[in-house]
Amino acid sequence: MTDFLPMSLFAPSLLLAAAAVAVWQPGRRPRLLPRLAEGAALLCLGLALGAVAQLLASGPVTVGIGDGVARMAVRLDAVSTTMAVLVAFVGWVVVRYARTYLDGEAREGAFHGWLLATLAAVLMLVQAGSLAVLVAGFVAIGVGLRRLLLFYPDRAEARRAAAKFTLVWGAGDGVLVLAAGLFWVAFGTADIAALGAAAAGGLPVTAQVGVALLVLAAALKTATFPLHGWLTEVMEAPTPVSALLHAGIINGGGFLLIRLADLVQASPGAMAALVMLGGLTALFGAAVMLTQSAVKTALAWSTVAQMGFLLLQIGMGLWALALLHIVAHSLYKAHAFLASGGAVVAVAQVHRPGPVAVPGIGAVARAFVLALVLYAGVAVGFGLIAGPKSAQALALGVILILGVAYLVAQGLADQAPRALTQRTAAASLAAAVAYFGFQVVAGMLWGPHLPPAPVPGPLEWALIVLALMSFGLVAVAQALFPHWAHHPAAAGLRVHLANGLYLNAVLDRMIGGFRTAKPL
């Protein structure tokens, strides 16, 4: 028992009350409703910040009612408060943006109502302290987001995207329900903290199957390869919906795994599956993103790649870094979508540059060696100051620095000016310092509340080597792309990648997604 309730617990109720008001004014230019929606969202942010103060003053706490598999509980801890503040802040920004974006729309009031209701569901999800609340949160999010995706129900593309979202998200809900049932059978509890403690003694077969289903549910909800198509087709919905989805809701699968980290890490097979699936999705999404000409579509494919990288981090057992990834990606992607219109105008006004220096094979080799040497030096320095890092953390840093090496290669091209060479070298050094710096901060904030990275065995070492080789080859190929971009085979590959290797079309045929003549 506890003498207080988490302040953030009242935020979903507040948003639902404001959403109920919107039901009475669903049409154009409802009086005071946009300001009411923004005020409710801002008040929720204040409640979330108040919960942080409560956590610092009194420590973690779980509050719940009922017992058994249907127990309803919320948890106040470092993970839930971080996510609550993040969701409340992004939600407030999106609601504020929607005030202007939706002004004068025929169903403006209804949009604000469903937006607030969806935010309430996300806030309840991130504070879940039991499996029942976790499942209910995901189901409620699916209902609310479907209504937002169908804000323009006369658009065939919107109906197709909503149909695919409902199928994939609903399948994830069903799988999650099965996993929750198996955990109840295995451990006799639905409390998340109790499940984490029970996992320390090992997983019975029933629980191992539950963890496998948990990974599948997370994969479905993060739009991983090959069921990623619905995420790239939601552009027919208003821009605030895209921002809310890509900056918040899509992280739900990653949050699910982090919230149940003790269970997931107790299954080496599940961790290995996350590394392979996440790495493949990250490489696939990044490759397709580079072929897109529309800014919002490119951002959508960027989200696919980022979610794959998130699962890769989780599979390596870098839980604190994965949570940091969610925070950083949410803030970046919300800004990217809401500012996409202005960015297009700004780019159109920029004078086109002259010829770009193309690095040769020697320049690319020197760039990668330089980037790795700088990274190794920074790693040694931070190791002496903050202690040695796990093999998984060092490997992840190598993957990140390989991307910077591509920039360094431009600076080492024979025709590159000296200033560019200096800036790209400085960028590599700054990236390495930032990576280890943020890692230290993440470890201080969330490390004590999440499992440490496991000591890698033969399977883990094999996966680390495979990941390094895969990302390394892609980085080198990208740096050398100008040398073979005009080959007919490269042109054909670009067309296939631009269409996502047609996997989305295959899903359309399987579910009848092309038959959208009748509104849903």
Folded structure, characterized:
The chain has 520 residues and is mainly α. It has three domains: 129 residues; 183 residues; 131 residues. β1 and β2 form a beta hairpin. It is globular. The chain has 22 helices and two strands.
Lateral arrangement of strands in the main beta sheet? 1-2
- Uncertain segments: none
Overall form: globular
Number of domains: 3
How is this fold's topology laid out?
Blueprint: H1 11-23, H2 33-58, E1 61-65, E2 72-76, H3 78-101, H4 108-126, H5 131-149, H6 156-187, H7 192-199, H8 205-221, H9 239-247, H10 252-259, H11 261-265, H12 268-289, H13 295-315, H14 319-338, H15 340-349, H16 361-386, H17 391-411, H18 418-446, H19 458-479, H20 481-484, H21 488-498, H22 503-511
Helix pairs in contact: 1-2, 1-4, 2-3, 2-4, 3-4, 3-9, 3-14, 4-5, 5-6, 6-8, 8-10, 8-12, 9-14, 12-13, 12-19, 13-14, 14-18, 16-17, 16-18, 17-18, 17-19
Brief characterization of the structure:
Helix content is 72%, strand content 2%. The protein has helices at 11-23, 33-58, 78-101, 108-126, 131-149, 156-187, 192-199, 205-221, 239-247, 252-259, 261-265, 268-289, 295-315, 319-338, 340-349, 361-386, 391-411, 418-446, 458-479, 481-484, 488-498, 503-511, and strands at 61-65, 72-76.
Features of the shown structure:
globular, 2 strands, single chain, 520 residues, 3 domains, mainly alpha, two-stranded antiparallel sheet, 22 helices
